[in-house]
Specification:
By secondary structure, the chain is mostly beta strands. The protein has two helices and twelve strands.
Length: 153
């Protein structure tokens, strides 16, 4: 047996052979980050589990180096007392958007382009943000247990 197209499975596969070989799991492409890293266009679509075991910076790619639609999700997966920063390249100020909190407090946001998103000391497991680019800006949207756990500034 081998992988078969959806059309073949629907129209020609009358005895359900090939079905299990042709099932595709919908797994999320993910990586763990625990130290400084510069992301690339090839990192688009990934979910990054971040660790606060040390303080470090994750640098977003330059706008000129990515395709419009570049996106990544960042989830706090290991909590400690260190801040983890997600920053645009120092040559650009391209981050806009905001983060809401389950605590109901006013979230943090930026309507004009800024430098960074920070998972601060005190952030909790599962705090997260997604960053999407339109080729001009990085748009951040996030959710944290406490609105102050992720800052956009």
């Amino acid at each position: 047996m081998a992988n078969k197209s959806r059309s073949f499975l629907k129209n020609q596969n009358r005895d359900f052979n090939n079905v299990l070989d042709s099932v595709q799991l919908n797994l999320i492409n993910h990586e763990t980050i625990a130290a400084a890293r510069t992301l690339t266009n090839e990192d688009s679509g990934k979910t990054f589990f971040i660790s606060q075991a040390s303080a470090y910076e994750i640098t977003l790619p330059l706008m000129s180096a990515i395709t419009s639609g570049w996106n990544a999700t960042f989830i706090l997966a290991s909590v400690d007392t260190n801040a983890v920063t997600i920053a645009n390249n120092t040559a650009e100020d391209t981050i806009v958007g905001g983060v809401a909190g389950a605590d109901g407090a006013a979230g943090t946001s930026a309507e004009t382009a800024v430098d960074e998103v920070v998972f601060i000391s005190g952030a909790v497991l599962g705090d997260r943000c997604t960053i999407v680019s339109n080729g001009t800006n990085y748009f951040v949207s996030g959710f944290a247990n406490d609105a102050a756990h992720i800052t956009v500034s």
